[in-house]
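Figure caption, in words: inputs first, then the predicted bound structure.
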Amino acid sequence: MANDMNNSDEERYSYPFEMPSEEAVAFSDGAIDGRPAGVPSSYDKGGSLRWTPDAISEVHALAQLGRYQVRGYNCFNQRLPTFDDLTFVPATMTRLPLEGYREKCDTTTILGNSGNVENPLELKIPIYIASMSFGALSASAKAALGYGASKVGTMTCTGEGGMLEEERAASERLVYQMSPARYGLDLDHLRRADGLELVVGQGAKPGTGGLLLGMKVSERVSKMRTLPPGVDQRSTIRHPDFLGADDLAVKIEELRIATNYKVPISIKMGATRPRYDVAIAAKAGADIIVVDGAEGGTGASPEMLLNHTGIPNISAIRAAREALDECGMSGKVSLVAAGGIRSGVDAAKCLALGADAVMIGNASMIAMGCNSPRYEEDYAKLGTSPGACHHCHTGLCPVGIATQDPDLEARMDVAVGAERVARYLTAMTMEITALAKACGKSSVHNLEPEDLRALSFEASAFTGVKMAGIDRAFGW
Ligand SMILES: Cc1cc2nc3c(=O)[nH]c(=O)nc-3n(C[C@H](O)[C@H](O)[C@H](O)COP(=O)(O)O)c2cc1C
Ligand code: SF4
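Bound structure (flavin mononucleotide present):
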C-alpha cells in the first residue's frame, strides 16, 4: 500500500474509461471570455469570510485618512441580536386575553416615584423622546419633538449642550441633561426643568464623551456651549465632581437641594456591565436609571465604538432589572431601556423584559422624515440614498433634522414634524396595548418575561427568556 502511494499520478488510479478532453472538464461550452464556466471573475459577493468587501474598504479608508472614521446613526454590527429574536406568547388556555376592543389597558407611566421628590414624572404612555442635543439636531427638529411628545402626554430631553428656548416652550415636560463636560450648564435652566439627567455614558460610545463636528458648531450652538464656533467639540466623559459611588451620592444630594427636592434625577449609562453599574447608581440615590444598549443612536461617534462596544439592549434589561431586585430598589427606582427600539412591538418586549419605560432617538427622527425619499439629489451628494443615510455627523442632513444650516433646516416643518411624532407615538402605544391585551394584561406594566419566548438559543441565553417550544431558559 505504502509503495502504491509513492507511485506517480498516472499510475495511482486508472479510470475504467478514456480521459475526457480539457475542454469537457472545464465546461468550456459555458465559458465567458475564455474563463471556464463556474469560475467567478471576481469575488464581488465576498470570497473570504474575513476579508469581506466591507473589511477591505475599511482598511482602504483608514490607510487614506490616518485616523478612525466618525459617523452618525447607530450600530452596524450584524452579530447583535434583535428584538425579532423574541416572540410574544399571548393568552390561550392557561391565561385569558383581554377583550381587545372593549377592555382597557392602562398605559400611565410614573418615573422617579422614589419618595425622594415632590414631582415624579407622570406620563400618559411608556415611551418618551431620548436626550438628543441641540447641535446634533436643528432647533426646528428639537421643537417638533417637544410639541409631538407633549401632544400625547409624554416628555423629551435636552441632551448635551444646554436648554433651547424653543424646546422648553414646546415641551410640557422637559428633562435637562448634565454632561460631564458641563457644556451649556445653567442654574436657571436646571430649575426650569422637570427632571435632571446625569449622563455617564451612551450606548453608541460608552466610555467616551459626546462629539460634535465643527460643521455643526454654528454661532448659536457655540454660544450655548461657550466654545469657539466651527471647531470640533469633544466632551469629557468623567464627571469632575465624582469619582465613585460615594461622591455620586453627594452630587445627587447637591442637585436635590438645587432643585428643592422637586424633580427626579436620572443617571443615563451605556450598557456595559449593567448588573453592577445599575446597582451602584441605585445605591447612590438615582430616581431613574436609563440603560442605553449598544444599538443606541448618535449624532456622531467613532465608527469602531458604534460597532464594537457595549452589550445589546435585550441582554441589558434583564440584568438591570435583576440588579434592582437584588438591592431591593425595584418599585423605588425606575428603569428605562433605550437602544434600537423601532416600534411598539420592540417597546413592548422591553417592558416585558423588565423596563418601566423606553426612550427613543433614531425612531423619532425617522418619524419626522429622516431617510425619507425627498431631496434625493442631496442624499446623492453625500454619497448615499434615502433609506441608507447615516450622515448626521456631516451637518448636511437633506431633510433639515441633523443640521445647523439655515437653508436645510427650513426643510423641517415644525408643525408637520410634531404631528408625525405624535402619530408615531400613538401608533406605538396602540401596538403595545394590543399585545398586552392579547397577553391578558390590564396594564402595559404587567407584561413579564413569561409573556415571551426566545427564537434562538442566544436570545434565550441573553435574556433568560424561555426557549420557544422547549420552555426552558438557557444559561441564565
Ligand atoms: C442625533 C442624536 C443626538 C444625540 N445626542 C445625545 C446627547 O446629547 N446626549 C446623550 O446622552 N445622548 C445622545 N444621544 C443618544 C440618545 O439619547 C439615545 O441614548 C439613543 O438615541 C437611543 O437609541 P435609539 O436612537 O436607537 O433609540 C443622541 C442620539 C442621536 C440619534
Ligand atoms: S436623513 Fe438626516 S437625520 Fe437622517 S440619517 Fe441622514 S443626515 Fe441623519
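Confidence is low (pLDDT under 50) at residues 1-5.
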